Amino acid sequence: MSIFPRISLKPEVTEHLKGVFLNKEVLDAVGHQEAESRFHKLLTCLSHPPSYTCVRASTHLASLEEIRLKLGEELKKMCGSSAEEVSLQILPHPRIPDVLLLPVDGPRPVKQLSSEVVVGAQCGNAVLRGAHVFAPGIVASPKYMKAGDVVSVFSDLEGKCTRGATSFQGKRVFVGNGVAEMCRSNIFCTDEPAKGIGVRMIEPLYQSPSFDGVLPNLAFLQNLPSVVAGHVLGPRPGERILDMCAAPGGKTCHIAAVMGDQGEVVALDRIRNKIDRIRQNAQMLHLRSIRAYCFNSTQAVSSDPAHVTEGPPFPPESFDRVLLDAPCSGLGQRPNMASTWSLKEICSYQPLQRKLFHAAVRLLKKGGVLVYSTCTVTLAENEEQVAWALDTFPCLTLQPQEPHIGAEGMLGAGLSPEQLRLLQRFSPELIWDQTETTAPLPCRADRDTIGFFIAKFLKN
Q1: 308-327 residues labelled b (16+ CB within 10 A) or e (exposed)
Q2: What is the C-alpha to C-alpha distance for residues 248 and 280, in angstroms, rounded to an integer?
Q3: For residues 347 and 380, is the Cβ–Cβ distance under 8 A?
Q4: Helices in 364-416 by DSSP H: which ranges?
């Protein structure tokens, strides 16, 4: 059900995306009316959360059923409903052996109050997925707000609210009601930035459990397509695997878990504090096969094949499998009510992705598997990159993906129907008007996802 306005984008970005989704190949295949309808559905569904929460279970530490029951008990403590009722609502995914699905209840009829707190767009997005409001996300609050006050929370769509304001009349949307945990002065009038929960949500518009501190080593929040990417890579015990753009480490840890923690998973990222986060996640999930390094993956191939060190750069053909989950424009993320990016920023990722591709192909052994993925919806970063890669690297061939639960690739990059069928594009706009909550959860989970793209290659 649509209750929010479409994602707010700069006009030039909207026009660019429209050109992508109404390209000649698409128009020839489905006609102008259907293509335009899909584009408008995309803009609408991006501002809404998926109708379920996806949890990746640490099945290397316990069985899926054991984790499901423990999770039910933990959530029962939090929400005070009967354990049986909660565990009934935690469903295993029918095709993915380490995924649990929890339905999201929403949009719910919540009455707006006169006392209003305004939060940044990122914070508003997190609230729609079950988070409380953390103090750094608050940009405006009533003049005399004190701990214990019940307030309505609004998300500032365009980032125009002045920090510390007492009211705001700009473009915003209501995301639910909560109880203030801090008074106004503790949020805005301190020398140190405020930390911790600023507003505890009690009546969110979309009700889903907060996973803050819930079974941290057994239940890992991860978008369904991201989990699928790990399985498509197909890691096996004893292999050496590279995750090129690894932070915050969700996919790295998943790869190590699927391998039974036997082998080596090398994780690279160029931002130092993100490497610490990968190591923390690995430690929390009891995974010892992960080696994380702060390094720019475009320079990860050593020019001296005889140069052998434990860390990067690595000699060519050092890895059995490579995951290139590339930096991208992120236009598939949900919910996302607003992006302030310019067209230049949106289009700036293709050259970087190609540099990473060059390094990935050189680092991969012959007979090895390369998986390329993004969380965006553009052709330039997805199908066009596949067409370019097949043209640039004759040693690469596209491979079937397992599991394949998304749609096939999108028309417009000149790929053949056979090639498009081997790609996996998660396209929530294709079922947006059929996302009634009456459909069984596992059926709609495969399509009501973030926008995401996966391609799998074999190096011959």
Answers
A1: eeeebbbbebbbbbbbbbbb
A2: 10
A3: yes
A4: 383-392
Question: Is-contact 133 118, C-beta < 8 A?
Answer: no
Contact partners, residue 341, CB within 8 Å, separation at least 6:
10, 13, 329
Angstrom distance (rounded) from CA 373 to CA 382: 8
Tell me which residue has tokens 């409001």: 133
Q: Read off the pLDDT of residues 335-345 as tens digits, 9 standing for 90 and up.
A: 999 898 999 99
Give yes or no: 375 in active site.
Answer: yes
Spell out the alpha helix ranges (H) of 31-135: 32-46, 64-79, 83-88, 121-127
Name, in order, each residue with C-beta under 8 angstroms of 310's C-beta and a sequence gap of 6 or more.
291
- pTM equals 0.95
Which is catalytic among the residues 45, 123, 328, 375?
Answer: 375
Each residue's pLDDT tens digit, 220-275: 999 999 999 999 999 999 999 999 999 999 999 999 999 999 999 999 999 999 99
Q: How far apart are CA 380 and CA 359, in angstroms?
A: 19
Residue 103 burial by Cβ neighbours in a 10 Å radius (0-12, 13-18, 19+) = middle
